[in-house]
Input
Amino acid sequence: MRAVLDTNVVVSALLWGGKPFDLLQAAVDGDLLLCTSPALLAELRDVLARDHLAARLEGQRSSVDQAVTLYAELAVSVTPESTPPVVSADADDDHVIAAAVAAQADLVISGDRHLLDLVRHGDIRIVTPADAVRLIGGNG
Output
C-alpha cells in the first residue's frame, strides 16, 4: 500500500509517537510504502524548526536536520508535475494531494480537517492515522 503522510502526521510520529509512529514502523517493516515530495519535505523542515518543536527534538537528542533526513530516507520522493487547486480552504494542502497523485498513492493520511473532509480524491482515500493503521492490518 502506498501512502502520503501529511506533515502534521509526520511531526506527530517523530515527536509524540502513537498511531502516527505506527505508520513509520509499518514503513520500516515493509508493510507501507511512504511517499513524499520536495514541497512536503520543505514544509516538514519549516514546521520542525519552530522553536517549541526544535526544542522537543533536542530533548530527544535529535535535530531538525536529523529528523528530516530520517524521514526523507524512509519515504520515496516524487515530484508532482503540477499542484492544482483542490483544497479551497487551505492551499498548502494541495501539495499533499499533488504528491499523492504523483505517487499513485492509495492513501493520504492526515489529521487535517480540510483534507479529511474531502474523504477521497479520485481513487485516493483520505484517512486518519488510526484508520490507516487499521487498513494496513495493525491494532488500530
Remarks:
- The CA atoms of residues 80 and 99 lie 6 Å apart.
- Residues 18-28 form the longest helix (11 residues).
